[in-house]
Amino acid sequence: MDDSASTIATAPLPTKKTLRSRKNIPFQILRFAAFNIRMVRMVTKAHK
Question: What is the structure's pLDDT at 17?
């Protein structure tokens, strides 16, 4: 039998600070840009 319901019930919940940062649009834009820069650097290193 699958006990995913009990696993989900015991999963940790995000804190208020985490939820606030997830909803913060400028913070998300910065994270998106940083992630894209990392990906571009990784791809350019692989092609050398």
Answer: 96
Asked if residue 40 is part of any domain, the answer here is yes
Range of the domain at 27: 13-46
- What is d(CA 28, CA 35) in angstroms, rounded to the nearest whole number? 10
Cα separation, 17 vs 19, in Å, equals 5
Which amino acid, residue 7?
A: T
pTM of the model: 0.62
Per-residue pLDDT at 31 exceeds 80: yes
Distance CA 31, CA 19 (A): 15
